[in-house]
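User: For my dataset I need records formatted as: sequence, then structure tokens, nothing else. Please produce one.
Assistant:
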Amino acid sequence: MKIAYLFPGQGSQSPGMLAAFEKEAGVIRKTFDEASAIMGRDLWALAQQGSAEELNQTVVTQPLMLTAGIATWRVAQARGMPAPNYVAGHSLGEYSALVAAQAMAFADAVGLVEQRARLMQDAVAEGEGAMAAVLGLDDVSVQAVCAEAEIGEVVEAVNFNAPGQVVIAGHRQAVSRACELAKQAGAKRCIELPVSVPSHCRLMREASEQLSEHLAQIAISAPRIPVVHNVDVSVSSDAAGIRAALTAQLYRPVRWAQTIEWLRDQGIDRYVECGPGKVLAGLNRRIDRSLQCAALIDDGAIDNVLAELGANA
């Protein structure tokens, strides 16, 4: 059996996340303590007591989700989950994947994603950007309505998550126009996302150039586990390739559906989501209903996966 571990990005956070883990609660808290020391604030208290609005702020969400992903990964290791053949992360989740693959130190990644978040937040004035999920329209049609809706502003298809589910981002008014055009073109729904920046569109180009400078100062090693970059569905074995992928990722689309299809074509039998929620497991089933997906949201989920893997050994 071949396994891929997947790490979610922004959008999977929620108040009280990871509190359901009890068997390895110490591993969770130790991971959050490490990140808290770097951030200068109690991330565990924030995760448990912060409001949804506070957790949705990019400068909070990014270090929090990185920490949650690595905490879940460490719990999985402590519980004896098998090593993966590949790892991948959705957008921000790719940083968790790189830490899991030992290409980047956790401490370095915490500081880096905090800088990434601040660069993204500063790139567009608060309230001027937006993101929305377009449901029930094919990729080409979404791209067409975005092109029609721009009118001197920016709106682009930025997350190709699954067939019939594409996220768009850009200037708020342009996103609104694109949503109206998408509905006219046959979209079932357009849902504005609770995020504070328009990620993965060209409004982030300047932020990506600044991020590149920070990346140059971070030690990056060859991954011990192959990491699939979602910006171009490639695997890099050297620091230069990883830095280039992370820089481009900031202003180019997340090709999640293609990432999962590529992993399937490599013979991956099982997909394990490491982090709060079940967003990626849900997307993967929309991509291919035959895929075996599990989200490690609590001790019971890990127990179930271990039992299934043992039965199939």
